[in-house]
């Protein structure tokens, strides 16, 4: 799933390559991707791309005051082409959901792999009209995200597991499954640690790690073409997606906890005092 660094990098790529160009046509290959109907998607035709911004994991493409807002979800992506195919796509064929044509012949496709279709596109007059944006929490790379702010958020979360709190977009906007794994590994915290029970030193370290991990990921992604962002993210992960491999810090084996529809990875030595966490589909934490 694209998270804050990748979405921010996609925004930077579009600011360089799309801003100033006119939207000539929008082809919808999967009608289910559209979550709004007023303004219609056809209203984008003839408008100029004037700005591109990010809200959490939402990409906001401003076209003369009409916003094309995209949430790429778990398996969505934006594929840029300097010479986009002028042929209208066949509805329901392959991963293509939407194609945006620009005035110089370039453009981009919004695609989604797999059968679980969660990619969402909104055409709105104000980005705050998108429900997911309206309820976003603090951006972790903003000045408002301070150690004191993080402490207050963790206190409000009570005994909720820290992994879930970091992923909750209404608490902190932009962190998903992958970077929460990386953050918790770097902060040497168990994914199941109750949020409100972290000591002050742990909160300070967690804040430093969140900002540092996301800033480093963004730095790696900056300047990359859209097609290269996925590989950059994948190769930079220390524990996420590394089940069975050696932890780069302590050489212990990276373990996985699976749920019904997701999983996360961690290092027992670095994060749980050597304890192995049980598969949550089957049992509770091994004692």
TrEMBL record:
Residues 238-272 form the FPG-type domain. This is Fpg/Nei family DNA glycosylase. It comes from Phytoactinopolyspora mesophila. PROSITE patterns: FPG_CAT, ZF_FPG_2. GO terms for biological process: base-excision repair. The keyword DNA-binding applies. It catalyses: Hydrolysis of DNA containing ring-opened 7-methylguanine residues, releasing 2,6-diamino-4-hydroxy-5-(N-methyl)formamidopyrimidine. PANTHER family: FORMAMIDOPYRIMIDINE-DNA GLYCOSYLASE. It comes from the Bacteria. Keywords: DNA damage, DNA repair, DNA-binding, Glycosidase, Hydrolase, Lyase, Metal-binding, Multifunctional enzyme, Zinc, Zinc-finger. SUPFAM superfamilies: Glucocorticoid receptor-like (DNA-binding domain), N-terminal domain of MutM-like DNA repair proteins, S13-like H2TH domain. The keyword Lyase applies. GO terms for molecular function: 8-oxo-7,8-dihydroguanine DNA N-glycosylase activity; damaged DNA binding; DNA-(apurinic or apyrimidinic site) endonuclease activity; lyase activity; zinc ion binding. The lineage of its organism: Bacteria, Bacillati, Actinomycetota, Actinomycetes, Jiangellales. Belongs to the FPG family. Residues 2-119 form the Formamidopyrimidine-DNA glycosylase catalytic domain. InterPro entries: FPG_cat, FPG_N, H2TH_FPG, Ribosomal_uS13-like_H2TH, Znf_DNA_glyclase/AP_lyase. Gene3D superfamilies: 1.10.8.50, MutM-like, N-terminal.
């Amino acid at each position: 799933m694209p998270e804050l660094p990748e979405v921010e990098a996609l925004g930077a790529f579009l600011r360089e390559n799309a801003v100033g160009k006119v939207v000539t046509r929008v082809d919808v290959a999967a009608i289910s991707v559209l979550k709004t109907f007023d303004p219609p998607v056809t209203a984008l035709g003839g408008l100029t791309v004037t700005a591109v911004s990010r809200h959490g994991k939402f990409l906001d493409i401003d076209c003369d005051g009409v916003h094309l807002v995209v949430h790429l979800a778990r398996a969505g992506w934006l594929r840029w082409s300097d010479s986009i195919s002028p042929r209208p796509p066949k509805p329901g064929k392959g991963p293509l959901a939407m194609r945006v044509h620009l005035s110089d012949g370039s453009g981009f496709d919004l695609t989604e792999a797999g059968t679980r279709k969660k990619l969402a596109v909104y055409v709105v007059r104000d980005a705050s009209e998108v429900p997911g944006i309206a309820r976003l929490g603090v951006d972790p790379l903003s000045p408002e995200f301070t150690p004191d702010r993080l402490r207050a958020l963790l206190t409000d979360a009570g005994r909720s597991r820290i992994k879930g709190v970091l992923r909750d977009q209404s608490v902190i906007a932009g962190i998903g499954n992958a970077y929460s794994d990386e953050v918790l590994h770097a902060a040497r915290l168990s994914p199941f640690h109750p949020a409100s029970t972290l000591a002050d030193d742990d909160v300070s370290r967690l804040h430093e790690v969140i900002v540092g991990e996301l800033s480093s990921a963004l730095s790696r992604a900056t300047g990359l073409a859209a097609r290269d962002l996925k590989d950059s993210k994948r190769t930079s992960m220390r524990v996420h997606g590394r089940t069975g491999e050696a932890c780069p810090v302590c050489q212990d084996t990276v373990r996985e906890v699976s749920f019904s529809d997701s999983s996360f990875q961690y290092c027992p030595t670095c994060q749980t005092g050597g304890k192995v966490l049980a598969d949550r589909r089957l049992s509770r934490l091994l004692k």
